[in-house]
Amino acid sequence: MAKMKALAWSAVVAGGMLVPALAADAHGIWFAQRAKQIAVIYGIGADDLEAVKRQPNMESVQAWDSDLNPIGAQLRTAGSLVIVDTDAPAALVSAVLQNGTWSKLPDGEFVKKPKDEVPNSVKSETTIKYAVSIQAPLTKPIPLIPAQLLQITPTGAIPTMLGKPLTYRVTFKGRPVAGAEVINDMINDPDAKQVATRADGTVTLPVRNQGLNVIRAVYVSPTDNPKKIDRYEHTATLAFTLPHAPEE
After folding, report:
1. What pLDDT is recorded for position 48?
2. Per-residue pLDDT tens for 91-103?
3. How far is residue 65 CA from its own chain's centroid?
4. Quick one: pLDDT at residue 1?
5. SS in 3 state form for 223-235?
6. Would you say 37 and 200 are in contact if contact means Cβ atoms under 8 Å apart?
7. 60 Cβ partners below 8 Å, 6+ apart?
8. Cα(207)–Cα(205) distance, rounded to whole angstroms?
9. Rounded to whole angstroms, how far apart are CA atoms 72 and 234?
10. What average pLDDT does the segment 13-33 reach?
11. Checking CA distances to 59, which of 92, 98, 176, 245 falls within 20 to 30 Å?
12. 143 near 5, Cβ under 8 Å?
């Protein structure tokens, strides 16, 4: 479990240390059930876009059982879906999508090139997508996953009914991060007003759905190569499901 231990940084990242997140419409990846299989979905709102063509850029696919023991996990293409196959029933899964470098043109279109190849670009960024999903009850709190540079974790037990408050902590490189922009439901309410995390990286929101919940956080970090990009945009999701009442 050494790889699963929380990173031992104690400093809280101040909101002013990184560039404010501006991408209210950031696409992301998340996990959802498709015919009782775990699928990686790419999109936003009702847009379920082409995950298969992005599969070569998906990495760090991991899975754990309910006691957070690691289990094998592999991606498989099944028609238009990217499926996660695991060596045993998974209670927790995660993945990363390296989505590439994009430059925005004055007309609003994006091209997949750095800004030194797009002289008239108005913004260039490298975008990285992270996803964690709770597939079954866990006996321990979700740890920080090193591959998930931006991660959302619940600070307490997940309620069993919608509308109950739940506090989440957003971390960047293992540190609680202030100013990450969070929405409560990137599938059914992708244009919701974003809520910024507090100085300790937390935000409290009501559980929105008696079903699939996908919380999204966006955080922007500064460039380390200003000739190529203006910034990095990190988008993380946390997915979990509240079960419906038994059928009668």
Report:
1. 87
2. 999 999 999 999 9
3. 20
4. 43
5. CCCCCCCCEEEEE
6. no
7. 94, 95, 96, 147, 148
8. 6
9. 26
10. 60
11. 176
12. yes
Q: Which amino acid is at 7?
A: L
Mean pLDDT on 215-234:
97
Looking up tokens 């298969």 gives 52
- pLDDT of 61 over the 70 cut: yes
203, 196 Cβ separation under 8 angstroms: yes
Q: Give the C-alpha separation, 205 to 3, whole Å.
A: 30
Contact between 236 and 216 under an 8 Å Cβ cutoff? The reply is: yes
The two structure tokens encoding residue 176: 């609680």
- Are 150 and 236 spatial neighbours (Cβ–Cβ below 8 Å)? yes
User: Angle 109-114-118 (CA atoms, 0-180°, nearest 5)?
Assistant: 60
Hey, what are 2's tokens? Answer: 């050494």
Residue with structure tokens 């950031």?
A: 26
DSSP one-letter code for 13: B
CB-based contacts of 247, cutoff 8 Å, min separation 6: none
Spatial contact of 154 and 203, defined as CB atoms under 8 Å apart: no
CA–CA distance, 132 with 158 (Å, rounded to integer): 15
Distance between CA 109 and CA 87 in Å, rounded? Answer: 42
The SS3 of residue 94 is: strand
- And the tokens for 111? 């091209």
114 DSSP β-pair partners? none
Query: Tell me, what amino acid is at 127?
Result: T
pLDDT of residue 9: 35
Which tokens is 51 given? 């995950």
Contact 180, 200 (CB under 8 A): no
- The CB density around residue 237, as the number of other CB atoms within 10 Å, is 24
Read off φ and ψ for residue 166, nearest 5 degrees.
Answer: -140, 130
179: closest CA among 200, 208, 163?
A: 200
How many residues does this entry show for the chain?
Answer: 248
